[in-house]
Design goal:
The complex is a heterodimer of chains A (79) and B (342). Chain A has 79 residues and is mainly alpha-helical. Chain A has one domain. Chain A has three helices and no strands. In chain A, helix 1 packs across helix 3. Chain B has 342 residues and is an all-alpha fold. Classes of the chains: A mainly alpha (79), B mainly alpha (342). The interface between A and B is large, with 37 and 48 residues.
């Protein structure tokens, strides 16, 4: 069965995920820029960052395998 | 502020690779990876509490993505997951208290010994039981059939306690809440002790409640999400989460969790049990190897520093091996399942 590849979702989520990780790598070892993420009063920051990455990178990785043709077996077909 | 560790290319590569393999195993059996990631981060120079906190911070988004994916395949029992998670939170809280009192009474070595003994006893018993069941299914030639409900689960389902009965539609079971409660509690207790509550939660849902393996492993992701989110908030309030470490692990981990979830639709249901038992038993042996080291630190056993270092190294390599073997079995089973379908 042919399956249309979700290129649009792949590109958009890929851009969002890449932007997030580009920022992370740009400031990876910048102690000053990263300082707010380690402060007790900013406890919500790591939680928000994790949610944002799970949304963008979660969507991207889903599309990634789909575009590669690695998809779940359709329900009801024999193994 | 938490100690700031400079991250080089080798550290990043380690987190990406282990993240991917851990994600693959988690997407497939509902948990895994923490037992390699936490000591692995510590070997990179990350303080223990930061390693635990950062691992938990990557766990909840990973579990969220895995649970969403497997929910789309109709494998997640959200109600069961939430009830288990609520009771697991109590177990986790109690377990953390036990850990603290062990540390106060016997020091760091005593605490490590307690964790290792818990690993060995729980994983050897539960892992051995799961492996025996997988071998029985294989020998009976019923690998293609829907899983049989265990005798214990049949009894649990038959016990009617008015006012406590709950129906879990996806898990295809109706049981008293009074049986779910200790199971969730034990999952949380184990999660706070060895960081992998799923090693009790998944077999418990399968053999005590009678949930199919695929549903149990998928539902574990809901529990992992709730406990991971709670744990992240708790550690972030102390300023212990290193978000860089967590997001680097997540980079590889989400590729893995998606692939592992897809894999569950291709393999025979008993493969969940094979992978879980294999990992649990290798990890049990790995943790058994370091028990003499902690006994040495407590002056119960005379052991040379060289031998202690050697045992610790072999133990870590075996944990990496456990994860790698699990990943190889999953990929092999996926390829076989894919070929059979083609």
């Amino acid at each position: 069965m042919s399956h249309a590849k979700p290129w649009k979702g792949f590109v958009l989520s890929g851009l969002a995920s890449s932007a997030g990780y580009a920022l992370l790598f740009a400031y990876l070892n910048d102690r000053e820029a990263m300082a707010p993420f380690f402060q007790k009063e900013n406890w919500w920051l790591p939680v928000m960052v994790a949610f944002a990455f799970s949304l963008a990178h979660g969507a991207f990785t889903g599309y990634f395998w789909d575009v590669l043709g690695v998809r779940a077996k359709p329900r009801g077909s024999k193994s | 502020m938490t100690e700031f560790i400079a991250l080089g290319a080798d550290s990043v590569a380690f987190l990406l690779i282990v993240g991917f393999i851990g994600g693959l195993v988690s997407g497939f059996i509902g948990s895994g990876g923490a037992f390699v990631l936490t000591p692995g981060m510590m070997s990179l120079g990350v303080p223990g509490v930061v390693a635990v906190a950062s691992n938990i911070c990557h766990k909840f988004p990973k579990a969220l993505v895995g649970a969403y994916k497997r929910h789309k395949y109709g494998q997640v029992d959200i109600k069961l997951g939430l009830v288990m998670a609520a009771t697991a939170a109590v177990g986790m809280w109690w377990g953390a208290g036990v850990q603290q009192s062990v540390r106060e009474s016997f020091g760091e070595a005593g605490s490590n010994l307690y964790v290792s003994v818990a690993f060995v006893v729980v994983l050897a018993i539960v892992g051995g039981f799961v492996l025996r069941d997988a071998i029985r299914i294989y020998r009976a030639g019923t690998t293609e059939h829907e899983e049989e409900v265990s005798r214990l689960a049949r009894w649990v389902r038959s016990v009617e306690i008015p006012g406590t009965m709950m129906t879990f539609r996806v898990a295809k079971t109706r049981v008293s809440f009074l049986f779910v409660l200790p199971l969730g509690f034990a999952t949380g207790l184990l999660a706070s002790t060895i960081a992998v509550g799923g090693f009790v939660g998944v077999p418990g849902m399968m053999y005590v409640l009678g949930a199919p393996g695929l549903v149990a492993s998928a539902t574990e992701l809901v529990i992992a999400f709730v406990m991971g989110l709670g744990g992240t908030v708790k550690y972030a309030l102390g300023g212990y989460v290193d978000v860089r470490l967590a997001m680097l692990i997540l980079l590889g981990s989400l590729f893995g969790v998606q692939l592992g979830a897809i894999g569950t639709t291709f393999v025979k249901p008993y493969m969940i049990k094979v992978v879980m038992a294999t990992i649990m038993l290798i990890v049990a042996v790995s943790r058994a190897l370091v028990i003499p080291v902690y006994l040495g630190q407590l002056k119960v056993l005379a052991i040379s520093a060289a031998l202690a270092a050697f045992l610790k190294q072999v133990s870590f390599v075996m944990m990496v091996l456990a994860l790698a073997v699990g990943a190889i079995i999953i990929i092999g089973a996926m390829i076989r399942g894919h070929r059979a379908q083609a």
